Amino acid sequence: MKVKALSRSTADFTRETKSDIQILPRNVDPELHPLERAREYKRALNAAKVERMLAKPFIAGLSGHIDGIYSMAKNPWDLDRIVTGSGDGELRMWSLSSQETIWRAPEAHRGIVKGVCNIPGGDTDRFLSVGTDKMVKVWSRTESAVADDGVTPETVASYSGKHAFSGIDHHRRRPLFATSSSLVEVWDVERSEPIANLTWGADTINTVRMNQTEVNVLASCGTDRSIILYDLRTNSPLAKLLMTLSTNAISWNPMEAFMFATANEDHNIYTFDMRRMDHAVNVLRDHVSAVMDVDYSPTGQELVSASYDRTLRLWDVGTGHSRDIYHAKRMQRVFCAKYTQDNKYVLSGSDDGNLRLWRARASERVGIKSNRERATIEYADKLKDRFKYVPEVRKVLRHRNIPTSIKKASQTKQVMLQSRKRKEENRRKHEKDAKPRVPERKKAIIGTSSK
Amino acid sequence: MFAAAKLGADEAVAKRTHHTASGDEGSDGETERAPRTLRDKPAKSDRTTQPSTGKKRKGEKQAAEVPEDTKEPDEIQQRTAQAAKKYQRGGPSSTTTKVRSKRAQASLDHAKRRREEAAEEAARSEMLLTQDAGFLEAEGLERTYKFTQAQLAENLDLASAGKIFDLKLADFGPYALRYSDNGRHLLLGGRRGHLASIDWRSGRLGCELHVRETVRDVTWLHNESLFAAAQKKYVYIYDHTGAEVHCLQKHVEPTALGFLPFHFLLASTGMTGQVVFQDVTEGAVVGSHRPGLGPSHVLKVNPYNAVVHVGHGNGTVSLWAPKQGKPLARMLCHRGPVQAMAIDRSGTYMATSGLDGRVKVWDIRNFKPLHDYKTKQPAQALDISQRGLLAAGWGPHVSVWKDALSTRVDKPYMTQLLPGVSTSALQFVPYDDVLGVGHSQGLSSLVIPGAGEPNFDAYVANPYQTTKQRQESEVKSLLDKLAPDTIALDPTFIARLDPRSQAQKLRESAVAERERYAQDKEEGKYLDSSVRNKTKGRNSTAKRYLRKTQANVMDLKKLQALERVEREKQQREKAGDLPDEHKGALSMFYKDQR
């Protein structure tokens, strides 16, 4: 007789001392794990609920400005410092970690501060501001001594222009900056006069943005509904794009230098490939009022947008609708929004004069996580991804509490768009020479031209 | 197969005959298969077969000298591929059809690749399993079914031999028994009111009480801290100290209990024949069904899909889910009352025994009979072990068959006579080679080598669970508690894509609706439309509905309206048109309308 029966030694499966780890053998045989799919579905549902439970995106509201915040700049070399300019001409520098003002210039400009930007480089803390007072001013926290609180510190340098400025951006490497007014001007920091005037058409330019990767390219948008690209090497415009409504802001994709996103008056955000501007690469539609600002995340995969409808929205660049909406009870029209350089936070500046700090992913928490914790989070993410199309899970994941006004407006807008579409379809059906369908990505584009 | 391929041809034949004698046809099939798969391959595999077949042909000397390691990777790959089948999720790859969108196709391909990789990884992880299954082999003229437990005890290691014991409890028998999911705790319920829970390996008594009334069945709930007993009138729940926690009065005169661990449902059937499902976490009765077939004494839970199988007095077995008022299936299994039932853990096989003296094996995926065995007396108790051994208790005998589910066997694997008792309940201990037999004189514990799953998963059931781990797993399992409506014959239906198109779904629901309507009409739920006093003209609500709604939208309501209009038209045609003078507003004053 040959015989052997299962006989386990307890010592093999129990720990000797309390400091030992528990012995937990695994066996992945499917027969040992019945009802796998039902259980995973349940876990996915739980994970979705937990995600929504933990979704507390608002971190802090930083108050100080008397008037609304209309311009904001982040510093690629410094995660902590943010500069904001407000409607009453005040400039403030904030420390995000301590959540307080660390420097201020109460009367930096007469009138609205229309734009601020940092001078690149880790060795300098200088930054520029422009206002409707036709001045470009250079500031520094260390160099512009603060005599007393409430007294405007001295500028490091200043330049005076001919028109009221509307925007400013600095070159990535060279000591150049571009300003927008009724035209785009390129300045050398060493000279008091602009070194180049860039124009194509004659109307007010809303803003100007330099490409930080393909450094010789800059883009501007004007009230004549145009978006113009310029080349610094030839000091001339490259291409022009005319849209149905004007563009409020532009953001270059930091990872794909040829891509940029535009915040349009028609409630939409358009992303473009500058090599082929006859159609938008994507149309992001969810806002119910004009989009005032847009900013790419440092990964180039996400966008944050600020809108006149008093909300902030976050987007995946590849999808057509926002993945999240942020709003606060006292937040008024949002005029500027920025993604922080660590891809973890979002900043918004609004009409009510508060700078608000939000989480980029509402349910994510910072801090060092244990391996177990991380594994749990990854497992939950995978489950949510796997079951996201199941109605129950989708319902939980997509649910947002949004203000009644926004909800009503989006419903009205939906009806409006549908009826417009229906009308178009009816025309197409019954008209003799019906026009072919225009893709949504081309609808808002009137035309393009290049030089 | 890996080992079998290396055997010489003569050895293989010898092994075959030997196995047939011991009734082991499963592995016999494998020994036959092994050379065939190798033979299928031309040229190269011919070389590799050479050393394995053992026949050396002339002039092929160098072929025989092929070093061992050149064939190894090939075989390992084959073995992994074969093992991977076991771990394949979602059946065979279903994405062979091309989809139109390139992106969607890419993501489908990616998912498929990931599935295959995962299966392969899982197959490879088998290497990490530390324990091997038990076995019992006869040598020479011996036969495994002739071995007694006393003989086994002489040859077994001390720890295993200690698992052969009898508990003499002659006063309160016969006994029902239940092992906990990790096999560590034993619950005993004597017909005459004796309840006891024991950590049976260490012999430590958990609690013991006498309820002074009939106890027909017992079951553990989600872990060993709670158990339920089917008593004379109701089901009672006790905690680990033996204190009565609940009396479940919705279960009237219960005879058999089952527990669905993932749904936290306690299922019972009883003298009223009612099948009751009660949620043990919140106490709600989530389902109560009346099969209408008189008292039933047999209830088993299918571990694969959590469907409850109930055996009835007329020989049928019905399958129940808590949220379906009608049985999911009804199977006529025996010519006489169903006595006992067992379901294997893969949800493929069910074994039933009836008073007609037969033990039948069924494929419950398609409800077809597979094998029919005869017993000298009707089997009172059945159980299937984790590795597929079928045990039957009839009178004082306990017989265990190996491979009796997949193939028809002639001789049992093991038998045991328990003199002077009559068996009432059987259960294989999970993750152990032990069979517990409850009978009129108490309990006997028999060692059946090869019965239990050798490698447990500590996250599923851990025989060495600490208190902390038990508490943690309790919380986890409560978080993952499944809703009762996730129980269906196919447990993978959840979150599955419905391949029917929207139009097809509508059509099918319209057909179903029509059938329901026809059935209701047959049952007299609606008044016949010809009887209805209809005074209006030819206008009907259906027609008005059709006029008012959008023309291009087809939904269920619309389809019904269309159908109704059609029906009305047919009725009119059938009745024949009325003569002209009988039409119009004044027609009601005519005496004779037809």
Structure, described:
The complex is a heterodimer of chains A (451) and B (594). Chain A is of the alpha+beta class and 451 residues long. Chain A is 17% helix and 37% strand. Chain A has helices spanning 10-13, 36-54, 371-386, 391-398, 404-430, 440-443; strands at residues 2-4, 58-62, 69-75, 78-86, 91-95, 100-105, 113-118, 126-131, 135-140, 157-160, 167-170, 176-180, 184-188, 194-198, 205-210, 217-222, 226-231, 236-243, 247-252, 259-264, 268-273, 282-285, 291-296, 302-307, 312-316, 322-326, 334-339, 345-350, 355-359, 445-450. In chain A, strands 15-16-17-18-30 form a five-stranded antiparallel beta sheet. Chain A starts with a strand and ends with a strand. The mean pLDDT of chain A is 93. Chain B has 594 residues and is α+β, with helices and mostly antiparallel strands. Chain B has a four-stranded antiparallel beta sheet with strand order 2-29-28-27, with no helix packed on it. A four-stranded antiparallel beta sheet of chain B has the order 3-4-5-6, with no helix packed on it. Chain B has a four-stranded antiparallel beta sheet with strand order 7-8-9-10, with no helix packed on it. Chains A and B meet through strand 1 and helix 2 of A and strand 1 and helix 7 of B. Chain B: Involved in nucleolar processing of pre-18S ribosomal RNA.
